Amino acid sequence: MAELAAARPAWRRAADNWRIRLGGGFLLFLVAVALLAPWIAPHDPIDQDLLLQYLPPAWTGKGEAAHLFGTDNLGRDILSRLIYGARIALVVAVCAALAAGLIGTTLGLLAGYVGGWVDQAISRLVEIWMAFPAVLLSIVLVAVMGTGLHSVIIAIAVIDWTRFCRVVRAETMAQKAQDYVASAVTIGLPQRRILVREILPNVMPLLLVLLTLEMGIAVIVEAILSYVGLSLSSEFPTWGGMIGAGRQYVNQAPWLMVAPIVMVIATVLALNALGDGLKDTLDPVMRK
Amino acid sequence: MSVTDTPILAIEGLHLEIRADRRRIPILRGIGLAVTPGEVHGLVGESGAGKTMVGRVVLGIAPLRSRVSGGSVRFDGEDITHLSEGGRRRLMGRGMALIPQDPMTALNPAFRIGDQITDVLRLHMELGREAARARALDLLNDVHIRAPERVLRQYPHELSGGMRQRVLIAIAFSCRPKLIIADEPTTALDVTVQRQVLGLIKALQADRGTALLFITHDLGVVAKLCDRITVLQGGRVLEQGAVADVFEAPKHAYTSALMKATPRYDRPGDALQPVPAALTETLNDEALAYDEARDA
Questions:
Q1: Cβ proximity of B222 and B42 under 8 Å
Q2: Residue B278 domain boundaries
Q3: Start-to-end CA span in chain A (Å)
Q4: CA of B158: how far to CAs of A42, A281, B114, B221, in Å?
Q5: Which CATH number covers residue B193?
Q6: CB contact under 8 A, B93 and A187
């Protein structure tokens, strides 16, 4: 068995996992769309055409072929806004997850490895932090820092580092109890090197899974903040902003809300599927 | 085998206690033993006797909640009982090394075998990348690993337990330490592999003249491998001496009870006898505290 598993590189095993193929495939598609937005978007996302308000999607028969997903209350093309919205969603997801991961992993590694009062201090901090209602805290943070992309990213990172911290701390403690750490000490490796070069690589698979899951959370939080108007100003097309604007016209033009909601759900599902798939693929190799 | 008089490892009156729920539980209660250069010294005792703790104190990896409360450990003339972390690092690898108990977890699962061996060599022997790789190949040959080129590129999970233990033996001997502490190096292996691994350790030890502190509960192994023996019970030294003397005429009832509890292929007719409860005075809560501290 071991021989067989070894013969196939990790990326091949990953490619065989349907969750990774599905989730990863959709995300690759989304990244491509976001990168190529200026070329593939049929219209300028902020171009208003007040003669073509509330145009239904083209396939209903009442719309126009030029506006595949219809238009919103200001006559802006929904498909183009979705495409540009993907850019913001992805930037926020990646940056916020990385920032939260960096803070949480650093503190989690320290707490798990050093133990003692360091662990006590960090663990209590995490508990206090988690006692705050997350959405409320993010709204307060953005309100204080002012709206904008960087505020959203910082708000998410500042709130969600605790997820990483707790999991990484527990995993670090589990890894520290392994004999290879004792062996590393008896070999004479410095503590910092043991933590960063011996333990961290073994925490990495878990971290990858956490990062993908956190990206999903970041997409939702960004949507929430845009929905309440605390993300980017409304001229920038964000999925949450589209949902928020569409809410007012949900009786006349439900597709205004449906399209961005479907995008948020699909993106989060794809990220979760990717995370689950990575967990399945990385676990048996790294753990056993 | 040249056994000189100045010991490479001298432990005197070593006391170790573990803190548990505001209590201090003595784990080692005045251990004394000496290992001379080139000697194979067996450290035996049942579970909880403290034999692993002795090894851990010498190596500086005693559990966090434990404290040396008395006595001293001298290595090569230098007192290392309360050595700083930096001093400890200088000592490891070239001074002393460990052959761990469980080969399944003692190699880092995230790195190739080759990197794990060359890391040690480059750290302590100041070898370049190429030289370290060549040395690693030699070492794998020394521990009788077939296709060493391939093993260098493999990850630990791709190797069997016996192979991994060979790799760990290669790592322990890699920087030509003066003392190797082997903590039950064969208990996790199956019987056929045990013999090969023991033979290998003995051969390498004799070839390099390394002193070996061999921690085990297997008196059969001690008889085959060791020059001298220290029997521990409940954190105390019960009996000490040349293997032949102790086996011929054990001074203490516990030692002879231990020997009767060891299977012998030359006397298959004798029924194995359990060690009488009156002779095992290791208290339950002490053993518990020990386990807790080890897991902490």
A1: yes
A2: 9-95+178-295
A3: 12
A4: 53, 16, 13, 29
A5: 3.40.50.300
A6: yes
SS3 B26: strand
Please report where in the chains the tokens 């010294």 appear, as a residue. Answer: B41
Pairwise CA distance, residues B39 & B185, whole Å: 17
* Residue B198 and residue B285 share a domain: yes
Q: Which amino acid is at B127?
A: L
- Chain A: closest CA distance from residue B268 (Å): 36
Contact assessment for residue A88 and residue A144, using Cβ atoms and an 8 Å cutoff: no
Q: Do B109 and A190 touch (CB under 8 A)?
A: no
Greatest Cα pair distance in chain B: 59
Q: What is the ipTM of this complex?
A: 0.78
A interface test, pick of B98, B108, B175 with most A CB neighbours within 10 Å: B108
Of B106, B110, B111, the CB nearest to A183: B106
pLDDT per residue as tens digits for the range B49-96 = 888 899 999 998 888 788 899 899 999 988 998 888 888 888 888 899
Give the helix ranges, DSSP H, for chain B.
51-59, 85-91, 103-106, 113-124, 129-142, 148-152, 161-174, 191-208, 219-225, 243-248, 253-260, 284-295
User: Looking at CA atoms only, how far is residue A286 from chain B in angstroms?
Assistant: 6
> How many other CB atoms sit within 10 Å of the CB of residue A168?
26
Pairing of strands B179-183, B96-99: parallel
pLDDT digits (tens, 9 = 90+) for B106-141: 999 889 999 999 998 998 888 889 999 999 999 999
Please report, for the domain that includes residue A61, its CATH number.
Answer: 1.10.3720.10
Residue at a domain's end among B155, B174, B193: B174
Residues B161 and B190 in one domain: no
Whole-angstrom CA distances from B96 to A125, A233, B111, B168, B244 are 41, 65, 23, 14, 27
Rounded-to-integer distance, Cα A196 and Cα A250, Å: 52
Which tokens is A1 given? 């068995």
Handedness of CA B61, B135, A175, B288 (dihedral sign): negative
